[in-house]
Write a structure and sequence with these properties.
Largest sheet: 8 strands, mixed
Order of helices and strands: EEHHEEHEEEEEEEEHEHEEHHHEEEHEHH
Low-confidence stretches: 5-14, 21-45, 54-61
Number of strands: 19
Radius of gyration: 25 Å
Mean pLDDT: 80
Number of helices: 11
């Protein structure tokens, strides 16, 4: 995921289908930080610039409201629908599961997969800080517990669109290459016959999506599933993680810090219409088998019986290599994204927030704290004293260190 995808105009593979007919233009120019900028709200020397200055192009105005931009983009995407289907979704990962008789028709399956591929994955940068607290009870026994200091996430999905207002992106639906090791109507992963990693004997063309759908429909397997994987590509997550670690460490945080790239809505599985497939996706049956330990045997049975086609991939580029060999961005570069969100993330960490940051957090990070006016001088004075105490505590923590094990 850390490398941009090569998508030179004349070299796109025959079966790689663009999901949007009007891709956006080239990316915006790189942002250059102003070394003389003051950081008055949160006194950290290496904070990024104000978010209003991080993006200078008028075409990027919608990026300052990523929530609205994403809502507009998703509204323009085709909504998949199967009249005779049963739909399941994992609330934690966003994975989608479809069971329908009609999806055993190759034409309908292909159309369904294309509709699902037009919906983006939901990648998040997730920043979590924890520390371990050791307590001693009345009997002298010690117990250790993990305390979450902050759990902050920022969604990257809006920045996969070159024009979120009209739902334009650089997304491509492709099938796996012959040299890729994956399940091709099999139980175990394997490469195409005659292929050895990047070396393909005979240089035979890989099957298209339509051909894979026909192969799936022609299979007589009792249990089978066709899988679509949504991926964000061209995002240098390692450099972003490193800068965010440095940002949090600059607050003198001494706990256990993790910065991860988490992707939801990444997996879509279409099962053939079979009673066993409906049972395996029903929540109460899953719990019953888990509690009675029947899951140990049923898992092996399902694994051996189910033939899988993991051959369709929808790639959503954060960046790509243009025809001139230069790196182009769909909307923002990694540096511009950091400059946009860095202050809001730092403030959320110091406030020990938990949740997903939105546009209002961008504005709060730049604006002065609004004055509290209740009409009562006594109440106003008490609130101001409380705010001053919180700010002083944050400053002391930043100087002496905070979040360490205790």
């Amino acid at each position: 995921m850390g490398k941009p995808s090569d998508q030179k105009g004349s070299e796109v593979e025959a079966d790689a289908v663009s999901l949007h007919t009007n891709p956006g233009g080239s990316s915006m120019g790189n942002y250059h930080d102003d070394e003389n900028r003051d950081a008055t709200d949160i006194p950290i020397n290496d904070l990024p610039p104000n978010y209003s200055d991080a993006i200078q192009s008028s075409e990027a105005a919608s990026l300052l409201d990523p929530t609205a931009a994403l809502s507009n983009a998703l509204a323009t995407a085709p909504q998949p629908f199967v009249s005779d289907g049963t739909y399941f979704q994992d609330k934690n990962t966003g994975a989608q599961f479809w069971v329908a008789k009609s999806l055993e028709d190759p034409a309908k399956l292909e159309s369904h997969i294309r509709s699902l591929a037009a919906i983006p994955p939901r990648p998040y940068i997730k920043i979590v800080g924890t520390h371990t607290e050791t307590t001693r009870d009345s009997k002298g026994k010690t117990e250790k517990s993990t305390v979450t200091d902050f759990d902050v996430s920022v969604e990257l999905t809006p920045y996969l669109y070159s024009d979120a207002q009209y739902g334009r992106s650089w997304s491509q639906l492709r099938t796996v290459d012959n040299g890729e090791k994956t399940r091709r109507g099999t139980i175990l992963k394997k490469r195409a016959p005659g292929s050895n990693q990047s070396i393909e004997v005979g240089d035979s063309p890989k099957p298209t999506l339509r051909e894979w759908c026909h192969l799936y429909a022609a299979s007589h397997a009792g249990l089978k599933v066709f899988t679509l994987q949504r991926r964000m590509v061209g995002f240098d997550d390692e450099s972003v993680k490193q800068r965010l670690r440095m940002l949090v460490n600059s607050t003198n945080y001494r706990g256990h810090l993790s910065v991860d790239l988490v992707t939801k809505d990444q997996l879509v599985e279409c099962y053939n219409d079979a009673r066993t497939n409906r049972w395996r996706l029903t929540s109460w049956i899953q719990w019953l088998f888990a509690l009675t330990l029947l899951l140990i045997f049923s898992w092996l049975y399902l694994w051996l019986r189910t033939k899988r086609w993991e051959v369709a991939i929808a790639e959503w580029p954060f960046s790509r290599i243009g025809g001139s060999g230069t790196k182009q961005y769909a909307s923002l570069s990694e540096e511009q994204w950091y400059n946009l969100w860095g202050r809001a993330i730092c403030r959320a960490v110091l406030e020990r927030r938990q949740g997903v940051l939105v546009q209002s957090d961008l504005r709060r990070a730049e604006e002065a704290e609004p004055a509290f006016n209740s009409g009562s001088s006594t109440v106003d004075g008490a609130v101001n004293i409380f705010r001053a105490g919180i700010n002083a505590m944050n400053e002391v923590n930043r100087q002496l260190g905070w979040g360490g094990d205790c």
